[in-house]
Amino acid sequence: MSGGGQALSDLLLYPCLQLVSYTELSEHTFRAPQWIYFQRKEAISNTQKWVNASSSPKISIDFELTQEAYKSKDNLELLRSLVVFKLCSYDLLVDKNKELMDISKFLLGKKAFEQFMKMTFYGQFVAGEDHKSIKSLIQKNRAFGVGSVLDYSVEEDLTQEDAVTKEMDSCVSATEKEGMSKEKQYKAHQQFGDRRGGVTGARTYFYSDEAKCDQHMETFLKCIKASGGSSVDGFSAIKMTALGRPQFLLQFSEVLVKWKRFFSFLAAQQGRDGMEALEQRLELQPLQVHRTHRVGETIDRLDWNSLIDDRIKISDLLVVPNLETGQLEPLLNKFTEEEEKQMKRMLQRLDVLANHAEEHSVRLMVDAEQTYFQPAISTLTVEMQRIYNRGRPVIFNTYQCYLKEAYDIVTMDVELSRREGWFFGAKLVRGAYMYQERSRAEEIGYEDPINPDYETTNMMYHKCLDYILDEIVLNRNANVMVASHNEDTVKHTLRRMNELGLTPTENKVYFGQLLGMCDQISFPLGQAGFPVYKYVPYGPVNEVIPYLSRRAQENRGFMKGSQRERELLWKELKRRLASGQVFYRPQPEPGL
Ligand SMILES: Cc1cc2nc3c(=O)[nH]c(=O)nc-3n(C[C@H](O)[C@H](O)[C@H](O)COP(=O)(O)OP(=O)(O)OC[C@H]3O[C@@H](n4cnc5c(N)ncnc54)[C@H](O)[C@@H]3O)c2cc1C
């Protein structure tokens, strides 16, 4: 273990710890940074007082001003948006969208169908077929102050049966015996094998083989390159499940969660349960955990280099503490040689992508996925941040605020970045897998990881966001993307930024929305000088149908955001027609 005085909290952030000897810890108490809370509070309140007293201008944006919001759209584009959102308001059309698209393709023929889609749904939500054809849209949005996060959106159109087969094959080790004591949550279940069920907000990848994962990596590499080429401060998004065998993510997640539980168990024994993660203090003396075996003398804890090193076996890293004996035990007996290689390759692909992003000055966002993968995804992303975010924020993690434990995760990661001096980068979302998570938890029989209601998720979002904004004030190394279509959340961010004296030009707080949605939020923000980005999907018409299908679901008529968007579009179209702007041509403002 490097540094005998390592705090227990640090160890628990890196819990593949057969190599960590607690007996080497010289500190008897993990000093919880409670003083940090007081210092934070005081520093923030002093900043607020100073900002209130200063005469620096406060930014306010009127999201009702449709003239500003739709400045970048001609009348045909407004009309197309209105038609598309109107079509999404018919439940029957949305529910049967796949069948209807199949029938249309059959009746119209491929070419006419593609043309029809380009004039409607595809034109609304997708930028073009490849990274060349999307350039003009990217440039146009940029001219109106809105950047792009490129997102290649081709998806395999698998049957449910094929999806389940692929999932079960790729999530269970060939050496895994029936009846091994595995956590129910971190085990593949046949009935939830099709991970697309109940998910409208995100794309799903299934593992086929290594060649397919290499193909995904190549696509991400192209996106990174194109993002670097299209602007000086580009973003690109990736999903870890596209890059390898998901079995590793499941099993690593289980290890992480078992370590966390071990920490809670110890905290409870010492009467310190029920506190926020950062506030828990533990006496270290009674926490002697015995090492059972070690992999190599040179490695003293999980780190990125040891993970991607071919000579180190992943199965040797996946050990968990036995609560009764204090012994570290392997999670599984062994993986096969091939599985070991597959898991290594996933991590190596990630490393290639991070390197490429750094070289092209592109920021890489790692999307958040289901809770049975997410502890691993999030921890691996932090590991990359520790390497790549030394000079500037290259890697961004995603935090899902519908999770009960979101605040604890955010504060722990912020604290770690502060202690180690790297740039914290976060994308904050509410979360895209709610229905699937809830029904899986209920059916399989574990605690629902999602907040009990929408209000609690909103409060969680704002609490996490406030913490990061405060961190930006205290330590300019933090960065956050507010990835939401929720107008109240955007207004909350602007209000808080005004109170804290954070300006848009500092480039610390970004906003993110999907292409074709919420232009009334994105464009006024961009024109006011805020860094705002659209997730820009692209891909051939016939291969982005699943993506379009999900957009139709997300814009159903009963959705509050969708209704409001229709009202504003209609208002602007009427205003233009009444003022004689029948052939309105978008003109970007100079200087944007
Ligand atoms: C740029 C961008 C990037 C994204 N990246 C990711 C990603 O990496 N991973 C990911 O998971 N999602 C991602 N999303 C999707 C996101 O998580 C949301 O699903 C989506 O944006 C809707 O949330 P909202 O804040 O925009 O709107 P809102 O309409 O205000 O919020 C809807 C969300 O609130 C939550 N919610 C709704 N009802 C309840 C309830 N009863 N109890 C508890 N919570 C509830 C759910 O998360 C639901 O999706 C991304 C979205 C954007 C715009």
Automatic annotation (TrEMBL):
InterPro entries: FAD-linked_oxidoreductase-like, Proline_DH_dom, Proline_oxidase. Residues 138-557 form the Proline dehydrogenase domain. Pathway: Amino-acid degradation; L-proline degradation into L-glutamate; L-glutamate from L-proline: step 1/2. The keyword Acetylation applies. It catalyses: L-proline + a quinone = (S)-1-pyrroline-5-carboxylate + a quinol + H(+). Belongs to the proline oxidase family. Converts proline to delta-1-pyrroline-5-carboxylate. It is found in: Mitochondrion matrix. This is Proline dehydrogenase. GO terms for biological process: L-proline catabolic process to L-glutamate. Keywords: Acetylation, FAD, Flavoprotein, Mitochondrion, Oxidoreductase, Proline metabolism, Transit peptide.
